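Dear U.,

Please find below the material for section 3 of the report. The protein was modelled together with zinc ion; I have listed the sequence and SMILES used, followed by the predicted complex structure.
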Amino acid sequence: MKTLIGGCMCGEVRFEIKNEALVSLLCHCKDCQKLSGSAFTSGVVFPKDSIFYEKKNTSSYEYSGGSGAKMTRTFCKTCGTPIATVVAGLGDLCVVALVAFDDASQCPAPSVSVQMNNAKPWVTLADSVTKHQFGMS
Ligand SMILES: [Zn+2]
Ligand SMILES: [Zn+2]
């Protein structure tokens, strides 16, 4: 199994993942827009205990997601690069920011897009991406 490695922009956070990705997805919700500084987030989903930090100058922010699930976002304390979000109650998944990987081409391409009801009108996605107005259910 390949090892995926990544980290933040300034280098104070470094991690590795030895699990296979479950799915790669996009989210257009307001929280993701605020926290990413962009129109949507691109995340790669792994089982919760998949991420091992070699350098961990991180800070975390906890909040309730739209579904009521407890979300914990982890980002670099110095440069703010988003690293991962742990979602409690959804099978205890860990969504790692695609931008945090050194070589994102080793991750699966996004196949699912959620919260399309809040997507910016100028966002167009490939036909290969399954689009959901709200969550995946
Ligand atoms: Zn950093
Ligand atoms: Zn979102």
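For the text of the report, you could mention the following: The first helix runs from residue 30 to 36.

Regards,
Y.
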